[in-house]
Amino acid sequence: MGIVAAVANFLVQQQCNIVDSAQFGDQENQRFFMRVCFEPGTLSREDTQRAFDSIAKVFSMEWRIDDLSVKTRVCIMVSKFGHCLNDLLYRDGIGALNIEIAAIVSNHRDFYQLAASRNIPFHHLPVDANSKLKQESRLLEILETERIDLVVLARYMQVLSPQLCERLAGRAINIHHSFLPSFSGANPYSQAHTRGVKLIGATAHYVTAELDEGPIIEQDVTRASHAMSVEDCASAGREVECSVLARAVDWHTQHRILLSGRRTVIFR
User: Fold this and answer.
1) Looking at the structure, do residues 145 and 240 belong to the same domain, yes or no?
2) Does residue 168 lie within any of the structural domains?
3) Closest CA to 158 of 132, 188, 140
4) Residue 128 is among the residues annotated as catalytic for this protein
5) How many CB atoms lie within 10 A of CB 29?
6) Does 63 reside within a domain?
7) In the chain, at which end, N or C, are there fewer CB atoms within 10 A of the end residue's CB?
8) Residue 181: cis peptide before it, omega within 30 degrees of 0
């Protein structure tokens, strides 16, 4: 009791205007989550943080203040399927996402010209069993040089090492079809078509060392029918992947996602 009042009273005292406020009490884990969006008042961001620290200590809060006027610097990683990359580039171009795409990284050269057309640095990092760790080291250099806040695996078809996953914890998002674990491995859409699936879906989640098992951010599905070919199913899947990944990136860059163990709390 008293958390919401304490936060609201503090912001009022600093002449901050509360624009939006959302809360969730997790009864299972006895944790309270809160996101407050406000217009700044008399103090700078740094002074606001210092002033709020005493209140945070009273309630043993894990907290931070983010500036929504600052765009999230993003690195997009992609292999040979470019639908999610193209979708993110389009949404960025029309101002639909609060991001700045600072780099595109790929283990293939297919999208070099696409990156060049948008004046985005393109980094070709081919990966095999012998070069994997070396290329991951190079990737970390790129992320540091470009001051990357978020890594988006837009159908990047390489498994990241546990060490890299740990370095990127909470700031790397992956997208994949939702046929797992039923139809894993090569040609999942062909496997699903053979079984006559009626739903085609996609999952966006944070990257962890446990392959495709990180905290889920967003999922969606579309209907499939007996009349659809394998390519029809794959095309429908690509559409869902694009929209699901875009929503996940949007919520992350608006700081709407709070991690709760293996789950997420999302204030939409």
Assistant:
1) yes
2) yes
3) 132
4) no
5) 10
6) no
7) N
8) yes
